[in-house]
Amino acid sequence: PRTSSVVTETDVLMYELRKDVFDTLACSGVMRAALEERFSEDVLAACIGSVTVFKHLSEASCRLVVSQLEKVECQANKVLVDCKDTVNMFYFISRGKLCVQLKGNPDTKLHDGSFYNEVSLFHDVPRTTHIFAEIPTLVYTLSKAALEAVSPLFTEAERIEMHAVANAEYRKAIAVLLWNVLLFKKTPFEIVMQLSITLALRVFPQDTNIIKEGEGGTDMYFVARGAVGVYQNSRRVLVLRDGDYFGEVALVHNTPRTATITAEENSQVFTLSRDSFSEIVQRYPEQWN
Asked: How far are the Cα atoms of 35, 139, 206, 273 from residue 66, in angstroms, in the given order?
């Protein structure tokens, strides 16, 4: 797809080479392959420059990112991202169509020129989506390790700006977690963003109790990475994974916990305290009347 619009500022003399003419040229196979490879690199560099976290990179730095891309040919129905995945990977759709499924929301379609998951190159963002190829699709991937291999070659200003943008996008991603909670569904996103800044990230080793049935509590929890088991009367009734939440009643009521929540594996969990929630409620009382 076209990556920009071009408008003449003055009278311009231009030469045009059409694809059908190019195809009839007596180019050797080697020459044609070289031209197509160079053209592909130009297009990819322009596309990388349009990605939010990379928009401040120079053309040379964008080409460094392109050099780290991995080409993946996906057959129809191939799963690229599963809710249980923990891989920090960025995806750019060159040709085809991907379907993004998020629990409780309509499916989203990603077409030619779309990209997904760039924030995970910098932060461990909770995996809440299931993504698969609807039709044969060409995808370019970039891993966190691959980006870290070339980022020292960026200018210092580029690195600072890139991380600043990534941090801002990360906060938006965390705010979306809050927005999916029934308590916050009708709250303006700007207010939810303020609430997301107060979240604290905690790490719970496997088999650690996060909350205990019958005890009091004042915090709400969001699973950022990992899996936690929900136990009632010592029996596991549910497993919660990335993007799931529990304990929201404690934000507004002094009632005993109704279940024990235990880390089934080493897990990262965001906590929202009642004090932080109450402060936002007092600041915007009209939102909760």
From this structure: 17, 13, 38, 42
What is the residue-wise DSSP string for the chain?
A: ---S----SS--------HHHHHHS---HHHHHHHHHHHHHHHHHHHHHHSGGGTTS-HHHHHHHHTT-EEEEE-TT-EEE-TT----EEEEEEES-EEEEETTS--EEE-TT-EE-GGGGTS-----EEEEESS-EEEEEEEHHHHHHHGGGS-HHHHHHHHHHHHHHHHHHHHHHHHTSGGGTTS-HHHHHHHHTT-EEEEE-TT-EEE-TT----EEEEEEESEEEEEETTEEEEEEETT-EE-GGGGT-----SSEEEESSSEEEEEEEHHHHHHHHHHSGGG--
**Average pLDDT of span 284-288:** 78
| Bridge partners, residue 255, by sequence | none
Are 284 and 244 in contact, with CB atoms under 8 Å apart? no
* Mean pLDDT of the chain, nearest integer: 84
Better-predicted residue by pLDDT, 126 or 5 = 5
Max Cα distance, the chain (Å): 80
